[in-house]
Amino acid sequence: MAATPPVPEAARPALPAAAYADRLVTSLAAAGVADLIVCPGSRSQAIALAAARAAREGSLALHVRIDERSAAFLALGLARETGSPVAIVVTSGTALANLHPAMLEAHHSDVPLIAITADRPAELQGVRANQTTRQPGIFGDAARVVLDVGADALRHPEGDAVRAVRAALGWRGDAIADGAPVAASSEPDDAHTEPGPVQLNIAFREPLSGGAPAAARPIEPVGRPPMPTATLRAAAATVVIAGADAGAAAVDLAEAIGAPLIAEPTSGARFGRVLVPHGRDVIAQLGEAVRRVVVLGHPTLARAVTGLIRRPDVEVVTIGRAGQDNVRGTGATTVLTGRIEVEPAERDAEDIGREWIERWVAAGRALAAEHDAESAPDSQLSRSAYAKAELAEGRTPITRRELVTQVWDRTWPHDRLVVAASRLIRELDAFAGPKAVTARANRGLAGIDGTVSTASGIAIAHRRSGEPGLTRLLIGDLALLHDAGGLHVPPGEERPQLQIIVGNDRGGSLFDLLEVAGSAAPDDFARVLRTPHEVDFEHLAAAYGWPYERVSDRAGLRRALSQARPGIIEAVLEGETDAQQL
Known about the structure:
Layout: H1 17-31, E1 35-38, H2 45-57, E2 61-64, H3 68-82, E3 86-90, H4 94-97, H5 100-109, E4 113-119, E5 145-149, H6 157-169, E6 197-203, E7 229-233, E8 238-242, H7 249-257, E9 261-263, H8 279-286, E10 292-296, H9 303-309, E11 315-319, E12 333-336, E13 339-343, H10 347-375, H11 383-394, H12 400-409, E14 416-419, H13 423-431, E15 439-440, H14 451-464, E16 471-476, H15 477-482, E17 498-504, H16 516-519, H17 522-530, H18 537-544, E18 548-551, H19 554-561, E19 567-572
Parallel strand pairs: 1-2, 1-3, 3-4, 4-6, 5-6, 7-13, 8-9, 8-10, 10-11, 11-12, 14-15, 14-16, 16-17, 17-19, 18-19
Helix pairs in contact: 1-2, 1-6, 3-5, 3-14, 8-9, 8-10, 12-13, 12-19
């Protein structure tokens, strides 16, 4: 008797929602998704229940959050810290629109995020059905790849899961699992090779849940795509700029090509023998001689740095992904992708390079010495007078400089420091000294959205890694209020080991540094830009169950920071009228 030929995959009937969801979640975990965030919703219930079962079995970590925007930034924080794709599941309609800020940040920061958006079937589209809109592609260019799985195409969840993970990790082209076709994709021919966000849109018909659990076909874990290699030549008058997320590779590269290093505090590269202290101030002194800038990460904090990059007589070499739009000069601009090999300089050029570095580093150290002298008590005082001066200094109000330097000084290489997009990160850039600190920030678009949630995700992943240390979040009052919902942790879930230090100056003081502060009517400026508030942070902390401490002088701040424990420390900033352009 002849063997019965297999039924083509496309001819097989669609799986019920529950069976597809079970196999999808199992396959995501097998492919490399360790964390999945669920927001409540009806259309997505099959995936939510499948995730709950997977979490009980220990195949992935499940996090449940009420608000989709905070949930998406929690996913972003987990993915930032682990480097692995994190999935977030939401229902149809407005729910997925709340993911857009985090998807944008993930796109501009190359963070692997998988937005699983439950959808309504084709027969409910275009008839004004409840919670129904055009979902595929709703994130625009922020989604590197859009996988749209219709209700009639729920046939091979393993392939859909593999392809989503591959796309999030930066693979080009389609993935085929067990020879089965996968969903149609909007992936362009010039797909990115760096990680990024992906939308997996899945339409479900009723019944939306129920039935026996379904077993997935075995699949292999998905690794990172192989990195290409590019060559960078050493050249005279070169400066290396390390922006957010540049990493320690910026230090190695600067040393290899013989160039001084200007590193932002969230670059992970603010250390080493070629680091220039107070780099942006040194640019004002020596920047005219620069002819080439090599950029890693995303520099956003200093006008001196962006001005140098935008000079038409300066060649810009960006180390990043093809099509990167965050850093571009007005003169010659080159993008190098992948692993960088350095073409060494001639011996004479090496000598010139050492002299070039010494000039920059010496200028930076001279500025650092001036700043240290300004903040130190007079060493010529008698012992009793010196003690009184120190006591008086401890009772003085907290300045922004004191806040950021105290947090920086008490953060160690085994800790994590998250810094919000506010005035404080600019103060940190101005005054933080050399230190190998793992500091992170949402600098892709530098929004204040979701900062508490991002830090929570980083704290959860950091603790789970088994590394010692505490995660600290340095944040302004408005940024904290913007993501107050991120303080919520459902009962029974892991509470982040996170210390939140909020510098409270009762409004958006960053705008005090902009030209508008001097041109707008004072009352109008205060109302629509500085946006003052009267929120009681002690009550806010109590509402969400966080330990709380309020400090108003330098001694209190030092005492609070010396206790490395989770909670909210409100640092009251007084008398800050400094109009210095940061």
